[in-house]
Amino acid sequence: MRVVLVHNRYRSAAPSGETQVVEREGKALADLGHEVIWFERSSDEIEQWSRAKKAVLPTRLIWSREAHRDLAATLREHRPDVVHVHNTFPLLSASILYACRDARAPVVASIHNKRLICANGAFFRDGTVCHDCADGSSLHGVVHGCYRGSRAASASVVLATSVHRRSWRTLVSAYVFASASQRDLLAGLGLPADRVFVRSHLIPRKQVRKVARGHYVMYAGRLEEAKGVRPLMAGWDRYRSRSGDQALSLVIAGGGELDAEVATWASTRSSVDMVGRVGDERFAELMSGARAILLPSTCEETFGLVVVEAMAAGSPPVAAAHGALAELITPGVNGALFRPGDPEALALAIADVEAHPDQYETYGAQARETYEKQFDPERTMDQLLEIYRYAIEHPIFG
After folding, report:
1. CA–CA separation, 185 and 132 (whole Å)
2. 90 cis-preceded (ω within 30 degrees of 0)
3. What are phi and psi of 255, to 5 degrees?
4. Do 243 and 268 lie in a common domain?
5. What's the pLDDT at 155?
6. Distance in angstroms (rounded) separating the CA atoms of residues 202 and 209
7. 119 burial class (0-12, 13-18, 19+ CB within 10 angstroms)?
């Protein structure tokens, strides 16, 4: 099968799970013998633009003449069986859908975030979950300046999605959601139900590392408000204030906009080791040795890559009980859940990890079994190929 992968990479300063997913699946397709043609842009390009070019970026959100022209040329040259569209924001725009229509190339669209209905793409505002735009009326995002705190910038984003909303409904042959919770949260898009599929992201199989459990729990992810970093810090302080000689330590792996704030906090706490962004081997070692992996997200995650990576490593996830995290984890079987955004609930969850090491060891073993049964990489890729075949057999061009 010949597949064109369309993706706008996020800034390299803010590594994205979406890009990681695209890279993994592209490699897996190639390894299976399929021909993969990459059509990408990177948001890093914007930094090199002139001031005048940056000034017209809002118009490119609505229609990128360059992306339309270049993708059309790529489609003419390669004549793919299917085009798999991932992120189009901000440099590609919905113009790529029209290039596919004109080339009669069926489109599969992975809906990685909530951008098509929410200005900031996360259903998250002022430190808490917000569903004001869930019914499809995105004007709330303009009123609240949900994109970068700017009403003008938010208006550009909302206009770009609103203008092409019908095209997203009529120029895509198959939609892929990473979780049922994400599909349900985005029901306001009005996508045709018979073309909607739920399929988990590809998480490569890992050899369970034979390392001794350390005396620590681990947070792995971006250091930003939506990921629950501030409740993590507050919850950790509550836990440590009541813990005794057997208290656990905390390892924080990752980086992001709250780097400085977290570093300042960690520098005054000997129980916290902030390791930053680490290589794959070191990351796997830390994850495999942790008593539990903490996922305190205050936003509703669309999937939860770290949850499944923890399961693949045989480490039990302890997560906020909403969004896809609650869908992935069965409390008392392969992990634990706690009330989202509640430092006290998180502190109690960490105390439970400390108090019941054998129980959490069992959770870890059962988490690995969950990974093998539900997230087997071969099965996941078979599902993707089935979706491709559906799109090819049921093309829709408006």
Report:
1. 12
2. yes
3. -155, 170
4. yes
5. 92
6. 20
7. buried
Structure tokens at 207: 């050899």
Domain count, the chain: 2
What CATH number is attached to the domain comprising 135?
3.40.50.2000
**How far is Cα 86 from Cα 57, in angstroms, rounded to an integer?**
20
Same domain, yes or no, for 155 and 244?
no
Q: Report the pLDDT value the prediction gives residue 16, as an integer from 0 to 100.
A: 76
Amino acid letter at 200?
A: S
Global model pTM greater than 0.85: yes
Q: Say whether both 381 and 369 belong to one domain.
A: no
Q: Kindly report the number of other CB atoms within 10 A of residue 310's CB atom.
A: 33
One-letter amino acid at 216 equals: Y
pLDDT along the chain (398 residues), means of 10: 96 80 96 98 91 87 96 98 97 97 98 94 93 90 92 92 94 97 95 96 79 91 95 98 91 95 97 93 93 97 94 96 97 98 98 97 96 94 98 93
Round to whole Å and give the CA distance between 294 and 251: 10
Can you give the pLDDT at residue 14? Answer: 67
Polymer length in residues for the chain:
398
Which ranges constitute the DSSP H helices of 207-356?
A: 229-242, 259-267, 280-289, 305-313, 323-328, 343-355
Q: Which residue range is the domain that position 79 belongs to?
A: 2-204+377-392
167 occurs within a structural domain: yes
User: Which parts of the chain are beta strand (E)?
Assistant: 2-9, 35-42, 82-85, 107-110, 124-125, 128-129, 174-177, 196-198, 216-220, 249-253, 272-276, 293-295, 317-320, 336-338
The H or E element that residue 8 is part of is strand 2-9
Question: Judging by DSSP bridges, how do beta strands 336-338 and 128-129 pair with one another?
Answer: unpaired
